[in-house]
């Protein structure tokens, strides 16, 4: 069955460092992969989308890579700030473009 | 905010009650979704509506009954729920076409079934 794993439930890093979150998947051939941010008591907010034929996408301090051979996406936040503390979700979409499968998320804590 | 509102934000109900969750989007989208988010579990897609027509029902029990009167409004009618149905219920919207996969989520309704 399809499975999405995000590297860990929680990740603590020091302010100013680069946070790297991992999303691995099995038994899946996604057409695209998305990253969302979710704060406590709120709905997820879209951050970035990367398609299967793209290797890397950037947006300000965010960078996403997508390796369909390794079946893995890496999500980087450079120069991390306490305000980046949140849960980050990866989501995979395939042929049925509206049917998106989410991972359980990684809770990031940036320590001042 | 995201342009998607949900009411109520919190709801406590007994197993014999009937209640409804409401979602409204102000983004001009024509696809709307219901998701369930339980602790330590990934978001689970429940229903998808495109242009007011239901196009996806992810094997959801009949005690959850969705309604989409127009492209801007979505309801989830609840009756005879179980305690395991306690969760955060999220509504989302998007454009109903490939290449427009970004979904915009509301803040959710935190439901507790006693």
Explain what you see:
The complex is a heterodimer of chains A (112) and B (114). With 112 residues, chain A is mainly β. In chain A, 0% of the residues lie in helices and 57% in strands. Chain A contains no helices and eleven strands. Chain A starts with a strand and ends with a strand. Chain B is globular. In chain B, the strands form two sheets. In chain B, strands 2, 4, 5, 6, 9, 10 and 11 form a seven-stranded mixed β-sheet that branches. A four-stranded antiparallel β-sheet of chain B has the order 1-3-8-7, with no helix packed on it. The model of chain B has no long low-confidence stretch (mean pLDDT 93). In chain B, strand 7 and strand 8 (73-79) form a beta hairpin. With 114 residues, chain B is mainly β. The chains are: A mainly beta (112), B mainly beta (114). The A-B interface holds A 4, 32, 34, 41-46, 49, 89, 91, 93, 97-105 and B 2, 4, 31, 33, 40-43, 45, 48, 50, 55-56, 90, 92, 94, 96, 98-99, 101-108, 110.
Largest interface: A-B, 22 and 28 residues
**Head-to-tail CA distance between termini of chain A:** 41 Å
Rough outline of chain A: globular
| Count of runs of 4 or more consecutive helical residues of chain B | 0
Strand content of chain A: over 45%
Using the CA coordinates, give the radius of gyration of chain B.
Answer: 13 Å
Gross morphology of chain B is: globular
> Would you count the extended β strands of chain A for me?
11
pLDDT averaged over residues of chain A:
92
* Subunit arrangement of the protein: heterodimer
